[in-house]
Amino acid sequence: MTSALRVDRVSRVFGGLQAVRDVSFDVEPGARLAIIGPNGAGKTTLFNLISGELPCTGGRIVAFERDITRLPAHRRAAAGLGRTYQLTNLFPRLTVLENLLLAAQALQRVRYVALRPIRIYAQLYERARALLEPLNLWEVRDVPVAELSYGDQRQLEIALALATQPRILLLDEPTAGLSPAETQHVLRIIRGLPREITILLIEHDMAVVFGVCERIVVFHQGEVVAAGAPDAVARDARVQEIYLGVRT
Known about the structure:
Helices cover 33% and strands 24% of the residues.
């Protein structure tokens, strides 16, 4: 089967620090893969390498059989790769709707049109509505993002990533800082995404990981130390040692 994403011996060095070391794994189309590990393990650095925000020191990244290793971030987005961030990355002075319309038009020809208001493009407006309504954000579409709760901002960021119609979606700690109720809402959103979208998820909440993902890759000190089904990874002796200090 063709892989949606292949990470092939990818490395990243910062001066004398090897943040990511010879990492390899494949992700099948439509899969839900969790990348877990202690803080500082290199998980977000790996996402930055996949999304093109950092260049690889070594190795290759292939998306749907296309080598994207040397493509800049905006070209990877155009090729169908979307992501969210560990910290919210929104325009706080713009409204909810304005943020989403900017994302929705980013890969369309209308982005080159500077003299006509974006709201006249009905298809963009309807797409924004279709993304905001399931998140219960349509009613606050005219509210500046800075006035939203943190939980609503996290959900809006997922909507922005989906607005570009990604084939591969990278979610970097989407439930970080959320209340239990907000976490459950985000979990339902992720579960409800179509299988046409392949999802890679960085997450510390194991209930979210086990509730969404069929496969887990465990990172430690920039390396993959375990990979497999959630139950198998939970029984892995090295994973138990890393997380719990348990030696078996």
